[in-house]
Every structure is written in structure tokens, then in C-alpha cells.
Amino acid sequence: IDLIMATVAPTDAAGQLTTRPPRETRSIKVPHHRFPPLKKVWMEVYSPLVEQCKLEVRMNLKTRSVDIRTSDETPEKSVIQKAEDFVKAVIAGFEVKDALAILRMEDIFIDSFEVKDVRANLAGDNLSRCIGRISGSHGKTRFTIENVTRTRIVLADTHIYIMGTTQNSRVARDAICDLIRGSPAAKVYNRIR
Question: What is the pTM of this model?
Fold first, then answer.
């Protein structure tokens, strides 16, 4: 018995063949220690991606990743890159309301580096003091740099993430690098103002 299989090509109302653009897929790995915080805010992350960006999103529990895929209703194919950056920002530790700026604005980016990228020989108590200088007493130094440069900063152990426009991120990065090198906070404040 010979079976003939026919594929049905999509057609529009006039009977003309339509070509469906290929679907683009991205998978963002979630580190083990960031999975519970992501689960807590999942609906806040999921809603704008599906409602505003018209993307298909799922949290893959087996591979510990977030999968994003374009759909037929996705307005622009470039929106998947913004969605990936948005999810990466939330995974890095930014608040969802701050990370939403990536979806809404064109020129918001995330810059990341490690303390050891600036000074390689830091270890032990010196490294702890360096991170303390960046944070300041009760987070005062970090908040001041954020407010003056209009950026958001996340200190995750020795990793530093800065979210903002390119120019503002550069100013914040320079201020943080000065603190890592040992400059007093007051001197850094005067330089960035």
C-alpha cells in the first residue's frame, strides 16, 4: 500500500500562498541560586513579555532555563533581543519594575564586570572592604551613584551589574572603578557631580 502524504501550505483569504516568517527562539539559562527569586516574580516577568511583546514564554524546569519564542502576532522580530535582555536583568538581580525599562526604551543596556577585572590582586579582607566601599554605609554610596548617574546597580558578590544608557553607565562604571582602586567615597561624589 502506497501512502501519499500532502502538506497543506498556509493560504490567505484570497487563496494565495502566504509565507510564515521563521520563528526565532532564545533560551536563557538560570543559575541555581537565582531560580527561587525568579519563581517569586514569574508572573511580573511573564505578563509584559506575552501581553506587550506578543512572545511565547515558558520556564523550563528540567533544563532550568527560560525559553522565549516569537509568535505570529509578534510586531517586530527585534523585540526578542529586548525580551532576552529583560529576563537576564531580572536574573542578575534587578527589580522587575526597573528591568521593564529595557522593554520600553531603546537605549537601555546592561553592563557587567567583576571587581577582579579592575584589581586582580584583591582577596580576603581587602576584597570585602572594596565591596563595602562600593556599597557604602547602608547602601548610601551605591544609591548616590545610581541617583546622580540615573542608572541601577546590582552588587552580587564580586559581580557588578549596571543598567542604564551607554553614557550614564560609563560614568557609573568609572565611579565604581575609582572606589575599587581605593578612592574615598567623598572624592568620587565630587567627581561624578
Answer: 0.79
